[in-house]
Design a protein that fits this description.
The chain is of the alpha+beta class and 483 residues long. 58% of the residues lie in helices and 14% in strands. The strands form 3 sheets. A 5-stranded mixed β-sheet has the order 6-8-9-11-10. A 4-stranded antiparallel β-sheet has the order 2-1-4-3. The protein starts with a helix and ends with a helix. The protein binds adenosine-5'-diphosphate (ADP). The site of adenosine-5'-diphosphate has 20 residues, from helix 11 and helix 12.
């Protein structure tokens, strides 16, 4: 600011010197061509210089130049030359016109300059207000909006400011001073302005939603436009938040309904079979042949297992979705984990040919969660492909990522549903086999928790291929052998 003032002063001095030189030049020409020129010609030139001074110089300096002009004209141009004596009273009119031209031109220039300055200030205000409006409209939370406004006001005027919100109870949202004073909150609760401060109340259409408090020591005021913009933005963010909460509740509600529908179907079917078989077995009046009795017992065991699987998946998805799932990474040998998953699924894959293509390696994954992904994918491959067909499991490590693929020779998945099958409870319409529609959703949650990706594709010769990529560290096995 001080630097700008200094520069402006130096420029003014330069202009004054330039104008004084011009006045000197006109006087010189007037003296040199006294015989050829009449006095009025020189007076006209002085008038011209007065107007020029008014347009270039500050009023004070314009008046000074006008006086210099009149004095030079009187002393050098009018007879008696080089003296201030009057020869003719008419010259007073010439002096008056010269003086008036300076004053008049200076006044006009000044009012024009003021108007230009005012326009520039207005333009600047509109520009900054527009920038603030654009910035606020892109922000989501009340806190971000309040902080951005405080920062904006801080740039404009160096004042102490705080923004308080009324809901749920009066609290500090953002401020140049981060500490909320209990006294201030006491005043605000009574809708009174705390002493030593200016309060700008923020209202939506019907009630007060908050307040902007500004240190009252300074005489500066906050633009009412900023207050309206702040009120509007805060109201918008509160409405958006309320809407998001309603949406979350309704999503939860619809999830609960789906869950209930799925649970009742998936649990009721095996339960019905178990109850039916158990009742038949208990009925002493019914004589059952040994193979039938055996069959009933097998079906009880199978349906019990099915129940167990459905319940486990339901519990898993609920557990994983409740909080952020943080994998416990450790050095894992994928081949070993796949082996143990195959062991657990031996009954399910006994009619399939399983081919495992895997190099020995150690990668950093959560072994329990990884085993769950492998199990779900192998179980699906077996469920959705014909007996005696081949299930191929491959592991690899490429570009800092561990890659697992499970391919089968089943019916494949319609292209438009390749991403949908990862949604909770989503099942293909023609899925004849029992299931919950949760297996792939669980895989996705686990893989995403490892910052990885899971995708489904159809193989060229028929069947589908599920591919998991997880960024992770690879243990350099050479280190192990060198030891
Ligand atoms: P579930 O198998 O319990 O129904 P999933 O989430 O594991 O649930 O799978 C969702 C749906 O994706 C399945 O119902 C099935 O229609 C389809 N699907 C999953 N894996 C395969 C596969 N290997 N081949 C064909 N379809 C599959």
């Amino acid at each position: 600011m001080i630097k700008t003032l200094k520069v402006a002063n130096i420029q003014e001095v330069h202009k004054v010197v330039a104008m004084a030189t011009l006045y000197g030049l006109v006087t010189f020409v007037g003296v040199l061509y006294r015989r050829e020129m009449i006095e009025t010609d020189v007076a006209m030139l002085f008038l011209l210089l007065n107007i020029l001074s008014a347009s270039l110089l500050k009023p004070r300096n314009t008046y000074l130049m006008t006086i210099v002009g009149i004095v030079s004209f009187h002393y050098f141009i009018l007879p008696d030359y080089s003296s201030f004596r009057f020869q003719n009273a008419q010259h007073i009119i010439t002096f008056a016109v010269m003086a008036f031209s300076g004053i008049f031109a200076s006044n006009i220039t000044q009012s024009q300059r003021k108007q230009i300055d005012k326009n520039k200030r207005l333009q600047h205000r509109h520009k900054t207000n527009y920038q603030l409006a654009r910035h606020l409209s892109a922000l989501q939370t009340s806190q971000q909006i309040a902080q951005a406004t405080i920062q904006f006001l801080r740039k404009e005027q160096a004042l102490e400011r705080q923004i308080y919100l009324a809901e749920p109870s009066w609290h500090l949202l953002a401020g140049s001073n981060e500490n909320a004073s209990p006294n201030v909150i006491g005043w605000l609760k009574e809708r009174k302005t705390p002493p030593g401060m200016n309060a700008y109340w923020l209202n939506d259409s019907s009630e007060t939603i908050g307040v902007l408090l500004v240190d009252a020591d300074k005489e500066l005021t906050v633009d009412p436009w900023v207050i309206s913009l702040l009120s509007l933005s805060l109201t918008r963010s509160q409405a958006t938040q309320a809407l998001a909460e309603v949406e979350a509740t309704s999503r939860m509600e619809s999830m609960r309904t789906t869950l209930l529908a799925s649970v009742s179907h998936d649990l009721k079917t095996p339960l019905g079979t178990i109850i039916g078989a158990a009742t038949t077995l208990r009925d002493s009046s019914v004589k059952l042949a040994d193979p039938v009795r055996e069959e009933l017992l097998i079906s009880i065991a199978e349906q019990g297992e099915r129940l167990n699987r459905s319940l486990t998946k339901l519990l898993d998805i609920t557990r994983y979705s409740a909080g952020a799932l943080v994998p416990k990474r450790e050095w894992v040998e994928p081949e070993e984990v796949i082996g143990s998953a195959l062991q657990r699924l031996s009954a399910r894959v006994k009619h399939h040919k399983v081919r495992l293509i895997s190099e020995p390696m150690l990668v950093e994954l959560d072994s329990l969660l990884f085993e769950q992904v492998v199990s779900n994918l192998i179980e699906n491959a077996a469920k959705y492909s014909p007996d005696q067909s081949e299930i191929e499991i491959r592991t690899d490590y490429r570009d800092g990522q561990f890659v697992l693929s499970v391919s089968d020779q089943g019916s494949g998945i319609p292209e438009e549903q390749l991403t949908k099958i990862f949604e909770r409870f989503y099942r293909l319409e023609n899925s004849a086999v029992d299931g919950t529609g949760l297996g792939l959703a669980i895989c996705q949650v686990i893989v995403q928790a490892h910052h990885g990706e899971i995708t489904a594709n159809n193989r060229e010769g028929g069947g589908s291929c599920f591919c998991v990529t997880i960024p992770c560290k690879l243990y350099d096995l050479r280190e192990l052998y060198e030891q």
